[in-house]
Amino acid sequence: MPGYQRVLLKLSGEALMGEDAYGINPKTIDSMVTEIAEVVQLGVEIAIVIGGGNIFRGVAGGAAGMDRATADYMGMLATMMNSLALQDALRQKGVEARVQSALRMDQVVEPYIRPRAIRAMKEGKVVIFAAGTGNPFFTTDTAAALRAAEMGVEVMLKATKVDGIYSSDPNKDSNATLYPTITFDECLIKNLQVMDATAFALCRDRKLPIRVFSILKPGALLSVVRGEPEGTLVHV
C-alpha cells in the first residue's frame, strides 16, 4: 500500500545526464521512468517538475555576462526539452503523461491550467510542469514548491544525487552524518542548503514536508511513496 496518494517529484536536469557531460543519457532516463511507472501502478498520483541544468542553466548564463532574464528564459526552454523527453519515455513505458508549460507554446504543449492538471492526475496521468514558474529570477525548486502547493500534494520529493541531507558534504567529509528526519527550523539553524530560500520558505509556510533522496538508488522512489524511511524527511 502506498504511503501517499498524491506527490510532486522534483528532478534536477543534471540527473538526466547520467555519466555524460551534458544532455540526456538514454539509459538514465529509461531507469527513471521505469521507477515512475511503478509508482503510477501503485495508484499514486504524481506530478513532476524538472530542471534544465543538463542543457542550459540561467544562473550560469547570467554570471557569464548574459542578461539574467534572457538566460533564465533560455533555461526555461531547456526544461521544456527535458519535459518532452520525459513524456516520450513514459509513453514508451505505457504511462500516459501530459506536459503543461508556464510559457505559451501551443503547437507543442498545452499551457498550465490548474484544474486541468488536477483532473489529469486524478485520471492516473503523470503531469509534467515545464518552464518553471514562467518568470525569470525564480528557480525550478521554487516552481516545484509552487506547483506542489497548487496541486495539494502530501509531500514534495526532491530527487538528488545524494541519498539525503547530511551534516556536511559527504563527498568531502568522511565524518558527515545523515539526518533521517530534520525540521525546517533546524535546517535554517544549521544552514543546510536543502533548496533555494524562496522554495524552502514556501514549503515551510504551507507545512509541506520535503523528502530528499537519491534518484540514482534503484527502488528508492518506490520506497519513498510507500512511506518507508528512505533519505531525509524535512518536516515542521
Protein architecture, described:
This protein has 236 residues and is an alpha/beta fold. Helices cover 38% and strands 19% of the residues. It has helices at 26-41, 58-63, 68-92, 114-122, 140-151, 184-189, 197-205, 220-225; strands at residues 6-11, 45-50, 97-101, 110-111, 126-130, 155-160, 165-166, 178-179, 181-183, 210-214, 232-235. The protein has a nine-stranded mixed β-sheet with strand order 4-3-5-2-1-6-10-11-9, with helices on both faces. Strand 1, helix 1 and strand 2 (45-50) form a beta-alpha-beta unit. It is globular and about 50 Å long. The mean pLDDT is 93.
Summarize the structure.
This protein is α/β, with parallel strands linked by helices and 236 residues long. The chain has helices spanning 26-41, 58-63, 68-92, 114-122, 140-151, 184-189, 197-205, 220-225, and strands at 6-11, 45-50, 97-101, 110-111, 126-130, 155-160, 165-166, 178-179, 181-183, 210-214, 232-235.
CATH superfamily: Acetylglutamate kinase-like
- Main sheet: strand order: 4-3-5-2-1-6-10-11-9
CATH architecture: 3-Layer(aba) Sandwich
Helix/sheet category: alpha/beta
Main features:
8 helices, 9-stranded mixed β-sheet, two-stranded antiparallel sheet, 38% helix, alpha/beta, 11 strands, Carbamate kinase, 236 residues
Helices and strands in order:
Elements: E1 6-11, H1 26-41, E2 45-50, H2 58-63, H3 68-92, E3 97-101, E4 110-111, H4 114-122, E5 126-130, H5 140-151, E6 155-160, E7 165-166, E8 178-179, E9 181-183, H6 184-189, H7 197-205, E10 210-214, H8 220-225, E11 232-235
Parallel strand pairs: 1-2, 1-6, 2-5, 3-4, 3-5, 6-10, 9-11
Antiparallel strand pairs: 7-8, 10-11
Helix pairs in contact: 5-7
